[in-house]
Structures are given as C-alpha cells and as structure tokens.
Amino acid sequence: MKSADILIIGTGVGGLFTALNLPSDKKILIITKDKCENSDSFLAQGGICVLKDESDYESYYNDTMRAGHYENRKESVEIMIRSSPEIINDLVSYGVDFERNSDGFVYTREGAHSTPRILFHEDITGEEITSKLLSAVFRLPNVTILEYNSMVDLIVDDNKCCGIVAKNEHGELYNIFAEHTVLATGGVGGLYVHSTNFRHLTGDALGVCMEHNIKLENIDYVQIHPTSYYMANHDRRFLISESVRGEGAVLLDKNGDRFTDELQPRDVVTAAIRKQMAKDNTNHVWLSLKNLSEDEIIKHFPHIYEYCREHGVNLPEDPIPVVPAQHYFMGGVWVDSDSKTSCEALYAVGEASCNGVHGKNRLASNSLLESLVFAKRAAHHIGLHDGIKASEKIKNDYENRLKQHNDYLLMRPDYVSVMRSEIEKAKENHNNGE
Ligand SMILES: Cc1cc2nc3c(=O)[nH]c(=O)nc-3n(C[C@H](O)[C@H](O)[C@H](O)COP(=O)(O)OP(=O)(O)OC[C@H]3O[C@@H](n4cnc5c(N)ncnc54)[C@H](O)[C@@H]3O)c2cc1C
Question: Does a structural domain hold residue 431?
Fold first, then answer.
C-alpha cells in the first residue's frame, strides 16, 4: 500500500503540467505505465497554437468551432484561447525553445487554420515541450515518479475517489490512497490496429470510469489523421505532420494528379483520401513535397526528412506513400472547466478527458494547448479544495480485496474488444440521434 496527497496517472504534458502547478507542500505521486518519455506528448510534431494578438481572437475561435462541427463547448474554447499566451509564457520559463526570427516568434499554419498561429520547434515540438516539463518535475522535491506502474482500477466509495489499485513492474497489485486523483492517461490508439499513438495507450481512464459509472462523453469521437507513412506491417504509424501540407505539400492519386484541397479539416481530407484509394484500388495515396526546397524541408521537418530517407524516399523528388490512421481522441471522461469529473476528488486532464474544446473534430495543434490549459486549472482547483481521506474501513476492504482484482475490466484479456464495442455502441447512438 502507498499513499500521497495527490496522485497523478500519466507523464504526458497533462500529468506533468498538473504536477508543476500544484502547491509545493503537497506530497505528489506520479505513476506511469511505461518509461516516462513514452507518451504521445513526446511524439507531437507540428506545434502548439497561441492567440498571437487580440485581432486573431474571432478567427481562431471560429476555426476551432468550424473544425469541431460546432459541437464544441463554447466556454471551454474561450478559456483555452484566452489562456494560451500565459501558457506559452510558462513554457518559455521552463526553457522551451520555439522557432524565432529577428521579429520574435515564427508562426506556421496547419489544415483548417485561417492564418499562421502555431508555434513550433523543428518538427519535434512535443519532445521539446515535454522533455523540459519532465526535467522541471524531476527537480521538484515533493514529487515521486514510478515508471512501469499501471492503474488497473479506481478506489471509489459513495462516488468519492480516494485513490487507485495499481500493478507494479512485477505484475503485483497494490493500493494507492490519495486525497485527490488525476487521470492523465492519454488517448485510445492502442485499441486500433492502425494508429500514430503509442501502443500502450488503451483508454484506461475510460475503462476504470465505466466500471464506476463515472460520466463519459462522446467516446466515439475518434480522429483519424489523413497522412501517416504507409507501411505494410502494423507497427505504430509514423506521422507526416499536417504542417507539411500547410507549407505547400500536395496529395496525389496513383496517376500523380491532385484530387483534393489539402488544407480542409482532417475528417474531410481523410474522407477524400479514402474515396481516392477505393477508386484507384490502392493501399495509400502520395504526398508530394516538390513545392518545397530541400533546404526548407531540412530546416522545418528534419525528422520527417530523415525518416523518409531511411525508408528509401528522397525528399523532395520522391513522393511519400501516406494513409489515414487513428490519431486523436476528442471524447473521454467528462469534465467541467476545472477538469473535475462527475466523481468527487477525481480529475481528468489531457486526451483522457473531454472538456468539450474539440467538439466532434480537433483543430490541428489545439491538443497540447488544451491539455496544458486544463491541467493548470485542475491543479489550481485541487490547491484550493480539500480532497477525500479514505476511511480505515475502505483501506481494509481494498487491502483484503486485492487478490480478487484479476477480474477487473482493465485486467481482462477481452479488454480491447470490450472498449471497441463500447465505442461502436456510442457511434450507433449518435447516428440514431441520441
Ligand atoms: C504522432 C503524434 C503527433 C501529434 N502532434 C501534435 C501536434 O503537433 N500538436 C498538438 O497539439 N498535438 C499533437 N498530438 C496530440 C498530442 O500529442 C496529445 O494529444 C497530447 O500530448 C496528450 O497528452 P496527454 O498528457 O493527455 O497524454 P500522453 O502524452 O499520451 O500521456 C499519457 C500518459 O499516461 C500513461 N498511462 C496510460 N495508461 C496508464 C495506466 N493505466 N497507468 C499508468 N499510466 C498510464 C502513459 O504511459 C503516458 O505517460 C500528436 C499526437 C501524436 C500521436
């Protein structure tokens, strides 16, 4: 058995930024399923959006709403956009280095953005941000991180959360009691055969919340990225960032002809690619970077350039074979604008949560920002409110029950198929207008 004042599950930007914004006199425990660096946050390529100045507010708001099919929660979108300059200042204070020129920040553009408003660091923005946050968390004396430890269940008493059941690296179960618990377990890519996500991200927050009737929202809103590098095997797909299209790359069919506007929202471009693949009877389409010079590619997209070379594709002459893949999860554990779930003392942040920012479809480069904004809000709310202390009875009950925990949803061999069918069920309900 372990205990902490505040327990965080996950070491992506959501979990780390929560830890960095919590009161320094609290004992914080973070657990993560794999090694600290293996989070989708490290994989983010394109960048992070920011409100450049007041004149861009309406346009940024409208782009986010349009991409989300106007199903976004307006209040959440406003909070995210208004908080973005402060978040970027925070990141810079942790040493994050965004591309600059003599006038200041350089902004790039991705699909469905009316104007360039995305900050970036080469094509490894996520690694730049998350590694700096991780270093800052390592320096905090009140934080302990346990790698290769997984949450397998929540400890809930009368809709009050007082911790989790965890599994250590040897497969042994133990309880962690905490006054506040934060779910920051990321997305659902591991449930899909084709995904750009780490395979160990299997929507575990959804699984445990389902078990305890904690409210979920839009769990069928799964975003497919139009352009991942096509390969015949089923490994994690390498992403060809949307900003490559933003900088001028074009999609081509099997005859080398352009077939769609590359800067439409992701779901629209994905549908166009799928239609073209069906028409041409191919497994992929092509992405040509001939409109960009080799120097531009090496400067802005060095990792994509290298990856392609390693796989025999020499940019810009050769086109890249690309195919749509599962990429992002707009739904999740329902939270309010302070990232509180429907269960007392339980919070959810980042991709595991649904605060409604993205509606039905995420606007490119809004997710790192959304994770950071609402992680900070969760931390502030936790700092201002008392949590739940587990009673001796609950502690004893859960200690005695540990041996029977093997039948819990997350530990069952059919977990993936259960979750996939829940997602399909939610899709049918949406299609039937429920
Ligand atoms: C290839 C790629 C490119 C992207 N590019 C961009 C971009 O350019 N801009 C942008 O804004 N967004 C981008 N995104 C999306 C963005 O990276 C994520 O939405 C965001 O980083 C999610 O952060 P998170 O903290 O919620 O989750 P993650 O960073 O995925 O972290 C989840 C953490 O939870 C842990 N975990 C999971 N389950 C358990 C469990 N049961 N027990 C213990 N620990 C657990 C994991 O080990 C991990 O540490 C991209 C995503 C991918 C995959």
Answer: no
Pocket test for ligand 1, best of 20, 31, 41 (most atoms within 8 A of CB): 41
Q: How far is the CA of 350 from the centre of ligand 1 (A)?
A: 8
Specify the pTM: 0.93
Single out the residue in 267, 295, 326 at which a domain terminates.
326
Which are the contacts of 301, defined by CB distance < 8 A and separation ≥ 6? Answer: 122, 123, 241, 243, 244
Same domain, 58 and 124: yes
Catalytic residues, which ones? 266
Answer whether 9 contacts ligand 1 (Cβ < 6 A).
yes
Give the distance (Å) from ligand 1 centre to CA of residue 181. 18
- Say how far apart CA 112 and CA 266 lie, in whole Å: 8
Q: Report the distance separating Cα 394 and Cα 238, nearest Å.
A: 45
Shared-domain flag, residues 194 and 269:
no
Give the residue numbers spanning the domain of 284: 223-326
Domain check: are 133 and 247 in the same one? Answer: no
| DSSP state at residue 383 | H
The reply to whether 304 and 355 lie within a common domain is no
Q: How many domains does the chain have?
A: 2
With a cut of 90, say whether residue 110 has pLDDT above it: no
- Give the number of residues written for the chain: 434
Confidence tier at 367 by pLDDT (50, 70, 90): very high
pLDDT tens, 192-224? Answer: 878 999 999 999 999 999 999 999 999 999 999
Indicate whether residue 203 lines ligand 1 (CB < 6 A).
no
> What is the rounded CA–CA span in Å between residue 430 and residue 219?
10
User: Could you tell me the distance, in angstroms and rounded to a whole number, from the CA of residue 48 to the centre of ligand 1?
Assistant: 14
| Contact call for residues 282 and 322 (beta carbons, < 8 A) | no
